Amino acid sequence: MREWLREAWEWVISLPHRYHGLMIGVLVWIVWMIVGFWRMVLLAVLVALFYGFGRAWEREGSIAGIAERLLAFFANRGRSRDGM
Fold first, then answer.
1. Are residues 55 and 31 part of one domain?
2. Is 52 helix (H, G, I), strand (E, B) or coil?
3. What is the model's pTM?
4. Do 83 and 47 belong together in one domain?
5. Are 65 and 53 in contact (CB under 8 A)?
6. pLDDT tens per residue across span 46-68
7. Are 50 and 42 in contact (CB under 8 A)?
8. Distance between CA 7 and CA 58 in Å, rounded?
């Protein structure tokens, strides 16, 4: 079974990228038909947010680093408004 999956995966990887895009498009369409438009939009937004969170986590190395950066950002943002 594992060998069959490995061969199938290698076959999919060897296809031109236009076919990968086609497969992704079909999968998105299937999910859209199952869950509906607004749930699909929510799913896309959540995926984008958590992708960004994952990238920030890789860059910072820890969740505490992300929290520190966010707190510093919001603290500096509030100070600039006080001077108005």
1. no
2. helix
3. 0.51
4. yes
5. no
6. 999 999 888 888 887 888 888 88
7. no
8. 31
